[in-house]
């Protein structure tokens, strides 16, 4: 019971700073799961991240997988709920007053101000994940190729994930 | 050009909670490597619940709020059309399918995660996943307005978290307080002129 509460409370708090979505707070998820609570080692965290990336659905599934690793389906449920609930309630309340919000200067100010912070967070997340995977030269090449192809072409990300899986399986990266 | 208004929506059909649940279920389970394009396809193209412009405004709002962006979007669309019941239907529809898929994958990982073949496969996927997130960050960076003014804050946040390992909540809340004050001040200045 305590562990479920701990999962719920940890991710409930993370939700409030996850500007840019779950992908932006990966360093914080890592700190909670690996450093603070020792729920898993660094390698397991990185592998759960890979599974969340390959699975269909929102990026928040990394939280679901952490929860499940800690305490089965109940853990998965309470972790996911903790991450989704606070902002769902806030969004629900905010959007009831959509019309008033539309022309409020604070809205524009927040939108302009939060965007660059989210950029910094998301880039830091990607860097931390890449670093924890300890890529060799070919691995770095795969990462850069992914960045370029994703930015420059319309190629569906699933193909890149497939490529990563195949290259990994065949021992190239 | 008038500001897009959700209230005088051009849509004909108001979806029921059941329709929201079904629609967002499809979105959640189709969303390999990113759910947002599928959400757009459902809301704007397939069902026509929102116009393209309404979708952009709504998404912009959901992205500046913390929390999983797509869950926020499902709640926002749901509450817009059907109040609380719609919000619950949209968010549950979006999350339920992927949640069970993740459970199954998690169980498989528990059983086979120690196999070297599985580990090397996941290693390759991790690198691609990291690349996809970095690409997303770059794309978001290119979309920031007044880049000369705001991107230095992004750089400080990045260095603080990735290099100096400052605590992320402190960086985010402190940084956002600064950037929001700055943008508020700039907007006030622009309004005076």
The shape of chain B is flat
Helix and strand sequence of chain B: HHHHHHH
Largest sheet of chain B: none
Specify Rg of chain A, calculated over alpha carbons.
18 Å
Cα(first) to Cα(last) distance of chain A is: 41 Å
Task: Report helical residue fraction of chain B.
Answer: over 70%
- Provide the succession of SSEs of chain A: HHHHHHHH
The overall pLDDT average of chain B reads 89
- Overall number of strands of chain B: 0
- Poorly predicted parts of chain B: 1-11
- The dominant shape of chain A is globular
Mean pLDDT of chain A equals: 92
Q: Which oligomerization state do the chains in this entry correspond to? A: heterodimer
Structural class of chain A, by secondary structure, is mainly alpha
Rg over CA atoms of chain B: 20 Å
> Which chain pair has the greatest contact?
A-B, 110 and 105 residues
Describe this structure in words.
The complex is a heterodimer of chains A (173) and B (193). The mean pLDDT of chain A is 92. Chain A is built from 8 helices and no strands. The N and C termini of chain A lie far apart (41 Å). Chain A folds into 2 domains: 2-134, no CATH class; 136-173. With 173 residues, chain A is mainly α. The longest helix of chain A has 36 residues, at 61-96. The radius of gyration of chain A is 18 Å and the shape is globular. Chain A is 79% helix and 0% strand. In chain B, helix 1 (17-30) packs across helix 2 (36-46), helix 3 (52-64) crosses helix 4 and helix 6 (147-163) runs antiparallel to helix 7 (168-192). Chain B has helices spanning 17-30, 36-46, 52-64, 69-112, 116-143, 147-163, 168-192. Chain B is mainly alpha-helical. Chain B contains 7 helices and no strands.
């Amino acid at each position: 019971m305590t562990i479920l509460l701990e999962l719920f409370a940890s991710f409930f708090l993370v939700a409030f700073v996850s500007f840019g979505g779950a992908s932006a707070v990966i360093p914080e998820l890592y700190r909670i799961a690996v450093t603070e609570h020792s729920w898993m080692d660094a390698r397991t965290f990185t592998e759960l991240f890979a599974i969340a990336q390959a699975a269909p659905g929102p990026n928040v599934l990394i939280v679901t997988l952490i929860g499940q690793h800690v305490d089965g389906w109940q853990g998965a449920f309470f972790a996911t709920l903790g991450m989704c609930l606070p902002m769902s309630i806030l969004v629900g309340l905010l959007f009831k007053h959509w019309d008033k919000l539309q022309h409020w200067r604070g809205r524009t100010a927040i939108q302009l101000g939060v965007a660059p912070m989210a950029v910094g967070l998301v880039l830091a997340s990607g860097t931390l994940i890449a670093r924890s995977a300890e890529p060799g030269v070919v691995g770095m090449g795969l990462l850069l190729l992914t960045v370029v192809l994703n930015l420059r072409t319309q190629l569906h990300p699933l193909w890149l994930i497939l490529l990563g899986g195949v290259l990994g399986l065949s021992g190239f990266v | 050009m008038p500001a897009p208004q959700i209230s005088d929506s051009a849509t004909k059909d108001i979806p029921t909670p059941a329709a929201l649940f079904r629609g967002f279920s499809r979105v959640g389970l189709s969303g390999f490597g990113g759910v947002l394009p599928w959400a757009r396809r459902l809301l704007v193209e397939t069902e026509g619940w929102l116009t393209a412009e309404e979708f952009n405004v709504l998404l912009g709002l959901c992205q500046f709020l913390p929390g999983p962006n797509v869950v926020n979007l499902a709640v926002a669309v749901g509450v817009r059309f059907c109040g609380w019941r719609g919000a619950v239907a949209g968010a549950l529809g979006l999350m339920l399918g992927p949640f069970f898929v993740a459970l199954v994958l998690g169980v498989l990982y528990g059983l086979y995660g120690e196999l070297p073949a599985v580990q090397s496969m996941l290693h390759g996927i991790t690198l691609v996943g990291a690349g996809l997130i970095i690409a997303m960050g770059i794309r978001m960076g290119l979309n920031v307005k007044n880049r000369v003014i705001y991107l230095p804050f992004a750089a400080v946040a990045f260095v603080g978290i990735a290099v100096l390992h400052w605590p992320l909540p402190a960086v985010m809340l402190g940084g956002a307080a600064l950037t929001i004050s700055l943008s508020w001040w700039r907007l006030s200045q622009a309004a005076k002129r």
